[in-house]
Input
Amino acid sequence: MTVNMTKGQAISLQKSDGGSLTSVRMGLGWQAAPRRGLFGSRTREIDLDASAVLFADKQPVDVVFFRHLVSDDGSVRHTGDNLVGGVGQGGDDEAILVDLQRVPVHIDQIVFTVNSFTGQTFQEVQNAFCRLVDETNGQELARYTLAGGGAYTAQIMAKVHRAGQGWAMTAIGSPANGRTFQDLMPAILPVL
Amino acid sequence: MTAELTRGQNHPLPRARLEIRISAGTPIVAGATLGDENGRVHGVEWVAHPGTPALPGLEVSRQAAADHRLAVDLDAVPDAVHRVSVLLALPAGGQGPGRFGAVAAPFVAVTGLDGDEVASYTITGLEAESAVVALELYRRQGAWKVRAVGQGYTGGLTELLTDQSLPQAHELARGIHEAVAGGLARSVPAPPARTADGNRSRQAATPAHGTDHGAAASQGTPGTVPPVSPYDAPGVSDPQTPGAHAQHGTQQPYPAGPGDSATAGPSSAPTGGGPIDYSHPRRQDAAPPPPPPAAPPAAPGQPARPVAGDATGWSMEERLYNQVWGMFEDLARTTAAYRSAVDFADSRMEKELDQVLSDPRSRIGGQGDAAREAARTRHTQLVSQAREALDRDIAQLAAEADVVEPALPAAYARWDSPVWHAYRVPMEIPMALRLGDLHLPEADRIRIPLLVRLPLERGLWIDSGRSASLDGSFADSHEMRSLGLETAVAHAARLLAAYPAGEFTVHVIDPAGSGAQALAPLVQTGVLAAPPALGAAGTADVLARLTQRVDLVQMALRGGAPDALPPGLDTSQQLLIVNDFPHGFDDRAVNQLRYLADEGPAVGVHLMMVADREDSAGYGPLLDPLWRSLLRLTPVADDHLADPWVGHAWTYEPALVPPGSQVLRQVLTQVAAARRPWDR
Output
């Protein structure tokens, strides 16, 4: 059963039967907003990039993005860059898989970000969402829809962090500006 | 001449035989109702829908699709019919969009049979409606006209049909949706199950699977093929088996209904959403791969026991190759996780200890000691956690290595493996060749075979220089040289053994004759093309012949005339072993060697240098590109190879023949015997 998350909400990533999750997928989907006026049929391509930054004690340790598709330890994998988005009709355009059991012991937070590589602001993006899926059975655990696209080019979507023995997810949804995750570092640090 | 209609507008129809083309961004249901002069639909037999696709003069598709073509023959429509309404509906019950407001505006066009458009209409302004009457063809004073209607119904098909005074509207609407669900289930194949090595990290971009769209289609409607594991039943008859694509031609994904293809014409063509069969209809030579060994069921709570060859591939050889590389990557990444955790623990402890030192309060009393102790405990705890995770992974990989190593074929196996005693000259070259073993200090037990693809893409350089060997035993330069040549001979013998008879030729340059002892196995068994070349003259001769060969083959390839090669030319792969470089080489010979290193691999001429780089320092930077283009191997264990994922320094150990073993000579004797008929 999907939980529709709101900004700042946290959910625990326990399975309904009490077992803990082993593998999750963070999926990102978006579409270019239709253009009004003349030449409305000319499509513009919006390249959003999903990245995951691995933190140990508030220090960035590793990052998974379109140029480094697998974290050094192999626990976080990016399925590949999607340059246009929107073709999946509600499916994931980019996905990052996290094998929670294999995440190194010192990593305590994984922050997921979205950047507009082509520079359009989120005003020109519609139906953007990020969702967390239990990779073992395909069930959607949480969905967070980007509401009210504003004049910014990046967003810190959510973080998955250790909570007790298991993991929890917090929807963050704070706007930022930048082309890749490097530009976001100052914006990420306050939400850790 | 096209009329673009707006809502309510009408247009005369010039002909009776027409096609109505519908396109929407998403699969939709298309149907048509026949009405009398008052617009009343008399019964279910007056409705054409996917369940009953054909009525007199009217034909609709059997399934939901993004594009439709309805065939209409107005002359064949019964006289009592005065109105034909074309209706569209969204399939119910699926996970697709439930309202037209969420999909692209449907576009409807009336065309002649030759395709020229008579009138078109884009249905805009729909919101919560899930069914819509798109067009109406109606009789007016004996002639037919078309009107753009665009009347939507929030209540779906039921409301639409009720509005047309159909008494059984409810039942019919349900029937239509059932028929559509059946068609949907027929047309979309179940997604393949995850492969057995799904937990293996792969760099390649895989498509994000399991999107809403695919999942909607595969949900178990009666009549669907249940999702099967690709390894369960790789039988010829199973159309779901990945890899058995060639078999698709015999299975029709669309069961042809009676009269379906005969009357419908274009409307029965596979429309959006169906699988497309790219295979040749009559060619079936791509046999499915034999099934890999099945993993025994794992005990509950235990990781699955590893099985040799459970990676993907078309043959056992390819599976083992992929499995070895998978183990290589897993070990690299697991170790990276451990190392980064330990690094982090170290730096954190250092920081905490620094803090304690700089805090003046900690100098008084036991506070400082307690804080130091706490920092150390946190360090120990994290490191032991990391070690635990590493040990768990290493145990799993060690178990895998234990089953994989004995299963390796000769080309992948160590020289002490029993498969070398059962050696037979192969009929075709293997995928790859083992050049040695790799291991990491954290996991000393696990030896990963270093497999390189054949044919070789770059030459080899056996470094006989003084390397600071790991165990501290400092071999003197003479010993290193003979060890280097011994290693080279072992590699060359393996290459000779891996190729079919006569397809691999080895030349040796040994200008000073210093390698006679190490080269003895090659010389005495008679596998060499010619005795080792001695002196400057011999060197020049061998180099000249190989250079000429490279030139000729290159010219022939560039000119697109491989048939034009001289008849006596040996077309096999060539390996040149150079011992004691640069002894006996003049400038001309060095240049020829560089030419061979640059151009040779593309035309099957490879170098194996046994050399100490310092010896050739006199040539200056001239030879740097030569060294860089070769794969450097060492005759003793040395940590100089980096993996492609994380860049750990791996300790390389060459694949050497165990001391006293006769296996090398036995193998080479067989190779020589197999070559004799070719060498006449």
